[in-house]
Amino acid sequence: MKSIWGRIGLGALVLVLCVLVAGMVWEPFAAREGQVPASSRVYTAEIIRDDFGVPHIYGATDADVAYGVAIAHAEDDFFTLQDVAAMARGRYGAIAGQDGAQVDFMYHLLGSRETAAREYPRLPADTRALFDAYATGLNDYAAANPGEVKLDRLFPLDGEDIAAGFALRQPFFFGLANVIGPLVAGEPLNREQGPAIPGVSPDGEAKPAEDTVSPVDAADSVTVASLPIPMGEDAAHAGSNAFAVAPEKSGGPTILISNSHQPWRGGVAWYELVVESGEGWHYAGANFPGSPFPFLGHNEHLGWTNTVNTPDMVDVYRLEMDESGTRYRLDGEWRELETRTVTLPVKLGPIVLPVRRDVHRSVHGPVIVNDEGAFAVRYGGIGNLGQLDAYYRLNKATTFDEWQSILARMDIPSTNFIYGDKSGNIANIYNAAIPDRVAELDGKPVNWRGILPGDDSRLIWPGPVDYEALPRYTNPASGWVFEANNNPFMDAGPGSDLSQDDFAPELGIEIKDTNRGSRGWRLMSEAERLDRAALERIKYDTGYDRGGYVARMLMEVAQSKPRSPDAKKARRMLSEWDFTADGIGEADALALLMIRPFMGADYQNGEWPDAKEELERATEHLMEHFGRLDPPMSDLLRLRQGEGENGVDLPLDGGSDTLRASTLWDVDDDGRLSVRHGDSFIQWVEWLPGERVSSRSIQPFGSATTRPNSPHYTDQAALFVQHKLKPVHFWREDVLAHAASRKTVTSAR
Prior knowledge:
CATH architecture of the domain at 240-312 and 385-438 and 463-539: 4-Layer Sandwich
Structural class: alpha+beta
Mean pLDDT: 91
CATH class of the domain at 240-312 and 385-438 and 463-539: Alpha Beta
Distance between the termini: 65 Å
């Protein structure tokens, strides 16, 4: 009898081991096999790193430079580059588990690979050459450093893989996740002015979402309510500032200030670089992991920066389905709903689980089926990968007319562009591939913010509006333009601002303002001259205007009736607060903790926090970790990265929605706030008449944010917290004078 049970036990153990081994090895073999770029050319690039480790990449051709960009970036942050590559292959769940599987679901739902396969071959040959060279650089680095590779068979990559990464990520910069996430989860959509939302009853009350639909439910625990996909500026706390000043207002140069607010680590953290080729590509700026070219910065002639805008770029259609659930009605005819089953890898400990999910598509776009029905989603820029070529051409533009003609192609789906050049031109373009919607149908206005009927093809717009329909400023009389994610009707000052009445409501242009927007507009408008000193004061301003959500929060705090003596004291302190986050006032730390949830609610039209509860929460936090309500704000707010010789733990200023931005943070075990999002890559560019362009820049950490042993892991942090910038060595003789290392890299074939 014992031998029988022993054999059964042994068999069960063998079965468990087989399942475990299968779970550990199946995913790489099931994955789409990578392809080496078709080109057989050999690439050669020179990489010179300056005192701060910033790579300056030179090559005979643009493709040589792109190869060098990949090598240099991999040397500094191959860890993140692999995450981005896995997203572009639909395999991120095999690295990041359930969070990664959510990204993979979006990859399949949006048809990112299909878009890349269709559109990449249509790009100009020199653009494709750039992407193939970049992929080759990543492949060569992976082959030379196999111990750093996180996922089997992730490499080789080709240009189409890099393009698929763009196709996946580009829609999330204008908030697509805010629509798709709730639809997938069967939760209410929070769309301003939009009635008839799934999950919301006719009287506006939210229905409980008891049986939500999730893209992955390994252990029934994964939703897309908070996608970890790189989405640019955090959806709930969007940020970025930008300034451009004409010579007559500055008293000398054209000034362009790029003040982006991005995560300080990960897939949309800025990476600074300078590129120069024998084919006329010479540009200093920053890119995101997975890009062969900078997204913002300057060349010899001109430059630009970006801020996120939030026009209504997404439309939702309710499909009329037949009884089988496989066909939908359009223009009186039944059409087959495209459905395919995909396998999502979900890493769970040492094994990777295969999770099967169906993804659907109609002629409108991706389709989400939940308990309320079937909903198709269509968004600006859908199916278009022209931005891969547009950014490349913008890098090499030499005049404002040429630069604007590229932007006018409407290939870059969103983000404001703030521009300056050596001729003294400045501009602010509300760039967005806004759907070309009809205002009326059959004599009735169309509510594009609501749920549209999916059975009428007249509501399926063919593409974006014309460039001429967008708000834009060119050389305004004020002599300056400014942007801080505010509405585009407060960007150039009194007498120069555009009027909201001049733009059609179906464009869906946001009309909300931010504290940064209103305060920056006022400070810029009040300045007689916007020279370097004045702009530095404005850029690093830590104040809040005495209005909007901050004023409402303080009013409700004053009216609250807190329970504890500490909270009552905190209420009094806030009543005397000076509306700054400069770290000087006794209530600054308290106000810092209070403001962020109210800002998030205001930005996202979310549920307004309870002032008394937030006051109690902030009070308890300060008393628990500091034993007082008035610790110096710099003791609370910290710039932290790593430990040991290259680690830093430095004081910060600024707050959520101040021009000096410390927007998002993690709460560490000691109660300190470790900032992870806010002022990130800052670049200050000046063109003086008759002189060559010059610029300065700074990052919160350094050029090698995932290499703790690198001297450039945190070597910019001390300057960053002191509001200082370092020089950008744009010209080769300056680079050689400040070279810390120099080498030549050549492709393996």
